[in-house]
Amino acid sequence: MSRSQAAQIATTGTTVDVGEATTRFLLYGLLPGWFLPGLADWAMHRRTRIEHTAGTKESLIHSLMMAEVGVPIALTLRYEINPLLLTVQLGAAAVHEATALWDVRTAVDSDREVKPLEQHIHSFLEALPFGALASLMCLHSDQVRSLLRRGRGDPDAWRLVPRRRPLSPGYLAGIGLAIGACVLLPYGEELLRCGRAAGARKRRARAERAVFGTAKGSEESCVSRFWSRPRASSRSS
Questions:
Q1: pLDDT tens digits for 162-200?
Q2: CB 205 within 8 A of CB 66
């Protein structure tokens, strides 16, 4: 299919610019909507009492996954799409997928019940990054071609270039508040809860060892006193 044919199909019956509509969808639809399954996933972790099963290890994996997604998002909101940024986005998506597999394996190995609803939530969390990345690559197909050419002929291919049309401070502030309220706050609470539970388990273990040590010491003391008592000498006949 030629480029002109593709353009004709894309614009037939449309009354708005496709690129502009896709950009609005990414900024005001997909990105804010991403927070909802994240909150739902946190609620499932809380419901299945993660602090008493997989504990701090799984919660730290969740923090890692959020960093793997958060860094490319922050860069995309601040800088122009180019081969460097596309490479970061593709690499982060691949690493995020591997970490997601590690996350589920950690939960299952810890006997935390991963219910069907939570698995369905995971499907959204895994698919949304690829959907966003595919949309960006369609919007910036010239940069995809530049990436395939390893940036040859483009002096800005492998450096971060600030956006020529920066996003409004109001939008960035709103996204920042949403990240704080829907990501940092709930998952920070989860990590804190897991840390407190781990600390309580360690204190109980120390107390049990101390009680066991005291009981063992008392037993050994009793045995020592028994054998150290003087014995009456046997009388010869």
A1: 999 999 999 999 999 999 999 999 999 999 999 999 999
A2: no
